[in-house]
Amino acid sequence: MLVNDPRKDFWIKVGAVAVLVFGVSLLHYGTTTARPLLHDVYRRLYYIPVGLAAVWFGLRGGLAVSGVVAAIYVPHIIIYWNDMGRELWNRVMEVGLYFVFSGLVGFFADRDRAYRRRLQMANERLERSYEELRRQADTLFQVEEQLRRADRLSAIGQLAAAVTHEIRNPLGAIKGTAEILRDEFPSGHPKAEFLEILLKETDRLNQVVEEFLGYARPGSTDEGEAVDLAQVARQVVGFLSTPARKAGVTVTLEADEAVRVGGRPAQLKQVLVNLVLNAVQATPPGRRVTVRVGSCDGRVLGAEYREVAGRVARLCVEDEGPGLPRGEEQRVFEPFFTTKEEGTGLGLAISRKIAEAHGGTLAAENRPEGGARFVLTLPALEEADG
Ligand code: ADP
């Protein structure tokens, strides 16, 4: 008789008890008192609805049904059996027994129900604790994984820093030697051109080394210089056009005029390289990556976005890939967060650090039309001479 809907279940039980009480009463009132044996059987049949009510509805339900039975049955005793003397009292006592019986059964049923409720609550608490434990174990596992990765990366970083440091001294020597040789081969000499190349490339290598060591020493800051974001974007799009072409992705640049900010060009270039490379990697062949300089406001930006005070310069990189991993949109900036097999998860973390070191922000969001959008916002430089 158990039904899933508790209200329906309740009313079915009430109906069953009512039918039984009504049925037995009908038998009583419909059978002549000339057959006392049948009446003895009927009055014991009342124990069934009384007992069921006590089991289903507890002490109060059992007593209530006993009351109803008494109200129906006692008049029958008085009307039909008033000539009976001792037998009359037997029947009245039996009515009293209905109350005792339903009281006892109801009491134990209530106790059993309370016990089961406590058990269920304990069970739910246990399940919650287990769930919490599992979550914590997962977090622990992730942290352990990050630590392992950080350890590996820091070892690689230290090694790279040491190697770079070792390169610096011979590089100085090469440059010094080249400068001495330049005196021997003044401009106009057929070999002077080679010396110029040697010096230029040595300078370039030196800059790479300095920049790398600058990263290895966190917190290194300098004033920086005026940088045209459009120019930086042009350079980056230019030298990333080969990997983009290989991936079958078109990279379009929309930058009409100079957008000047103050900062370190190499660092800003690194931010853009990270953003454009990520976008190219995420975009399927035949699709497009768009780099916009100065014209990407007016759109919904990620929750992490905060306004940069004063005049701002913006640059955004939009792609037509699958978008940022759902539910983890803001985690992409966490160090070591990566979904790539070969990824380090450091590109965006470093890029955001660079943006913030320049007094700006780097935010990300999924575009409503599909794909991801990264927005770099930096304080714009006021034009010095109109
Ligand atoms: P890595 O490229 O080594 O994974 P990043 O910090 O550059 O490290 O990126 C972190 C993660 O952010 C990526 O693994 C990827 O899941 C996600 N991501 C970055 N750029 C995009 C993009 N344009 N589209 C979709 N997901 C991206």
Strand order of the largest sheet: 2-4-5-7-6
Number of spatially distinct domains:
3
Helix count?
Answer: 9
CATH domain class name of the largest domain: Alpha Beta
| Percent of residues in β-strands | 5-15%
Q: Name the CATH superfamily assignment of the largest domain.
A: Histidine kinase-like ATPase, C-terminal domain
Q: Let me know the number of strands.
A: 7
Extract low-pLDDT stretches.
none
CATH topology name of the largest domain, in short, is Heat Shock Protein 90
Percent of residues in helices comes to 55-70%
Characterization of this structure:
Strands 2-4-5-7-6 form a 5-stranded mixed β-sheet. The chain has a two-stranded antiparallel ribbon with strand order 1-3. Strand 6 (361-366) and strand 7 form a beta hairpin. The termini are far apart. The model has no long low-confidence stretch (mean pLDDT 85). Helix 3 runs antiparallel to helix 4 (86-184). The chain folds into 3 domains: 6-128, no CATH class; 140-216, Signal transduction histidine kinase, dimerisation/phosphotransfer (DHp) domain (Helix Hairpins), CATH 1.10.287; 225-379, Heat Shock Protein 90. The protein is an alpha+beta fold and 386 residues long. It has helices at residues 6-30, 36-45, 47-80, 86-184, 192-216, 229-239, 241-246, 265-282, 347-357; strands spanning 225-228, 250-254, 260-263, 288-293, 312-318, 361-366, 372-379. Adenosine-5'-diphosphate binds next to helix 8 and helix 9.
